[in-house]
Amino acid sequence: MTCAISHLLMMNIEKIISAFDFNSPILSIDECKIGHINSTFFVKCASGRYIAQKIKKGVFKDPAAIMKNVVGVTDHIRAKLAACGGDVQNSALQFIKSGDRYYHIDKNGEYWRAYQYVDGVCYDKCDTPALFTRVGAAFGNFQNQLADYDISTLHETIPNFHNTEKRYEAFEAAVAADICGRAAACAAEIEFIRARRKDCSFIVDGLASGLFPLRVTHNDTKPNNVIMDKNTGEGLCVIDLDTVMPGSLLYDFGDAIRFGASSATEDETDLDKVFVRVDMFEAYTKGFVTSLSKRITKEELRALPEGARILTLEQGIRFLTDHLQGDTYFRIQHEGHNLERARTQLKLVADMEEKHPLLQSIVDQYL
Ligand code: GN1
Ligand code: MG
User: Fold this and answer.
1) How far away, in angstroms, is 208 Cα from ligand 1 center?
2) Neighbours of 25 (CB within 10 A)
């Protein structure tokens, strides 16, 4: 989705991003409105097409560490592709340098980065199960490519990002502080989350006990974070690597399901329209589990439905916490937007609880 931005703003952005080594003048800049965090722009130069992004400071405290992570990870994937004759040019992001580093700091102290545009298609939402299977295969393959990546070299770009217990604690603190006076109007949602307090330990405990192995995970597995090949329709390149960190495979499965297997958008206000599509759950499971093949353990496999429920609960907690704190984290389009988003997530949790036996039987077929 692109939209024209004001001339003045564009001139300012052009000045900032001309710091990158595009090796030719910038011809046009358009804003991309997808994503709740970073600001993203499509850039056209005579030398090619690029993406430029301003990294949101309040969210990512150490952008230089992020760039170390993402360059390390993409280099690793490129080496893997080269070894097996893959598409080195398009199947891993190519970051552009500004001088001797992969980011540029503007005069306001904001961090920017740029990378080559990957020519393909990406879907905000998959409209068929077959497409969602291919997205699942792409994220499974991403884990395969990074299975031998040295986890100890990865920076934790957002500490405790998917630590559901810590998310719960932050939520309780936000309810107690209630700085915007919004808690009373969300009593039902608060109660729903409180009733599931114990569940927040499921993945945290599994990682701590070694039941679930620590892996390199993507952590933000929306369908639009995979660029699909225009010709073959298969996953080509996994993008949005800011939250690539050590984690559980359940994070990547769960986040994909909570977003992609939902019947509705993340901010649907008619909750009757919000439920888990079992066909989509089945489709993603097929792509993800098959591509991971023997890499996924029995314990992880069995825990997939519960992992999906926990990640959905966690996202509901995060949206509600941001609503209570005055919408400082997720970009909103109108007041109450984060509450609407929280409600869809909690509705999905309730539906997953109801459908649990069915979801479990789908997964158990792979045991
Ligand atoms: C944010 O901006 P976007 O869409 O890539 C968030 C994810 C959430 C998602 C909810 C760094 O991702 O964790 O699941 O919104 N990213 C960060 O839509 O917090
Ligand atoms: Mg993201």
Assistant:
1) 25
2) 10
SS3 79: helix
pLDDT tens track for 142-160 = 999 999 999 999 999 999 9
pLDDT tens digits along 220-277: 999 999 999 999 999 999 999 999 999 999 999 999 999 999 999 999 999 999 999 9
Structure tokens at 94: 């190519």
Amino acid at 307: G
Q: Which atom of ligand 1 is nearest to the CA of 38?
A: 2
Which of 343, 333, 326 minimizes the C-alpha distance to 273? 343
State which of 34, 37, 66 you would mutate to test the pocket of ligand 1, scoring each by most atoms of that ligand within 8 A of its C-beta.
37
Amino acid at the residue 13: I
User: Does the CB atom of residue 241 touch ligand 1 within 6 A?
Assistant: no
Indicate if ligand 1 lies below 6 Å from the C-beta of 53: no
35 lines ligand 1 (CB under 6 A): yes
Work out which ligand 1 atom sits closest to the CA atom of 34.
4
Structure tokens at 126: 């998959």
Six token digits for residue 256: 């994909």
